[in-house]
Design goal:
It is a single chain. This protein has a domain of about 70 residues. By secondary structure, the chain is an all-alpha fold. The protein is elongated and about 65 Å long.
């Protein structure tokens, strides 16, 4: 007689969702950078960036990403967007000089 209620089969290990890091989503970074640069005023650019941030936070919440990891990913993402904006404007990030 076989016992199908063995503890090994009942165990459900905790799972962790691993997301593809935002900082590696080059297409998204380039798109957000170019749209930010295309905004007519700083106010419009700020509103756009706030909309992007809120959408990313909703996505993280749906995936169950912890808040500290959300903050880390958002910070790295916006840093990459800023570097991409400088690249698109012809400035090399970190050098302070024009190309």
């Amino acid at each position: 007689m076989r016992d199908s209620n063995l503890p090994l089969f009942a165990r459900q290990p905790p799972c962790k969702v691993l997301t593809f890091p935002l900082v590696n989503r080059i297409g998204k970074i380039r798109d957000v950078a170019s749209k930010s640069l295309a905004k007519i005023t700083d106010h419009h650019a700020d509103v756009y960036r706030k909309q992007v941030t809120e959408a990313l936070l909703r996505q993280f919440d749906r995936l169950g990403i912890p808040e500290d990891e959300q903050d880390e990913q958002l910070g790295a993402f916006w840093h990459a967007v800023q570097n991409e904006m400088m690249r698109q404007c012809g400035r090399v990030p970190g050098s302070g000089e024009s190309v």
